[in-house]
Amino acid sequence: MTTRPVGTLVRDWRMRRHRSQMDVALDVGVSTRHLSFVETGRSNPSPKLLVALADELDVPLRERNALLLAAGYAPRYQETPLDAATMTRVNDALQRLLDSHQPYPGAVIDRMWNVVASNEAGQLLVAGAAPELLTPPVNVFRVSLHPDGMAQRILNFADWAAYLVGELRRAAALSGAPELEALLEEVRRYPNIAALESWHTSSAEFEQPAVLVPLKFEAAGTELSLITTLTKFGTPQDVTLSELAVEMFFPADEATEQFLRSRGVAKRS
């Protein structure tokens, strides 16, 4: 529960999205004067106005509840545990996605990029990581970028680290979550990350860029190359669902395709 005034929170989200008062006020159908009064605390916004502002500023559901609480209203969006009975269909759908993706790696991640579930092939990615990095909840950024994690096996570490740190910075900026800001600072202190000259400079800076940045790593003495996708629920009205994503990896070349298929990890029926 936040203790900051609702007007301050509204202004923070507007500034985070680089929007002017006039721009936002016109789009939500109020006067610039009224929005100014809301931000300075001279006027308390109605729940309807808060929801309209949250829609316009793309505020995550968790932070929408914080806006409503700060204005003295009840939270609007539930946060249902994944093990709740009402989540049975959701869990079935997620498991079906993971199982059908075999023999390729796949995982379900939450807003902190903690692994909620993974398929058998996903274990290939974290093989050899230090035990403390594999203690639940396993965090994608930690296990991928820590020197004792997957980083020691990543062959294009500068490029992949630039991608992951960029994703973490973007997630922290879009969500406004202090936990993600803290994780970003932690990751940037890793010696292998701190040693990189620039997040925006890849090893192929002056070459024709690839269509996608693959994850190239060593497994069982073989060089593998994977590309990744992120899938989210389309119409979430629950905080938990809004913060889940399914990350799926696909072979980026024929050698990786053959290696993964030869491992004998079959799809479940």
Structural account:
This protein has 269 residues and is α+β, with helices and mostly antiparallel strands. It has 2 domains: 6-70, 434 Repressor (Amino-terminal Domain) (Orthogonal Bundle), CATH 1.10.260.40; 85-262, Beta-Lactamase, CATH 3.30.450. 44% of the residues lie in helices and 11% in strands. The protein has helices at residues 6-16, 21-28, 32-40, 47-56, 61-70, 88-100, 123-126, 140-145, 157-175, 178-188, 191-194, 239-242, 254-262; strands at 106-109, 115-118, 215-219, 222-231, 245-251. The protein has a 5-stranded antiparallel beta sheet with strand order 2-1-5-4-3. Helix 1 (6-16) crosses helix 3 and helix 9 (157-175) runs antiparallel to helix 10 (178-188). The model is unreliable at 201-206 (pLDDT under 50).
Task: Give keywords.
single chain, 269 residues, alpha+beta, 434 Repressor (Amino-terminal Domain), Beta-Lactamase, 13 helices, 5 strands, 11% strand
Task: Round the Cα radius of gyration to an integer and report it.
Answer: 21 Å
> Within the CATH hierarchy, at the fold level, what is the topology of the largest domain?
Beta-Lactamase
Second-tier CATH architecture of the largest domain: 2-Layer Sandwich
Q: Quick check: average pLDDT? A: 91
**Number of spatially distinct domains:** 2
Taking strands numbered 1, 2, ... along the chain, how are they ordered across the largest sheet? 2-1-5-4-3
CATH class call of the largest domain? Alpha Beta
Q: Describe the main β-sheet briefly.
A: 5 strands, antiparallel
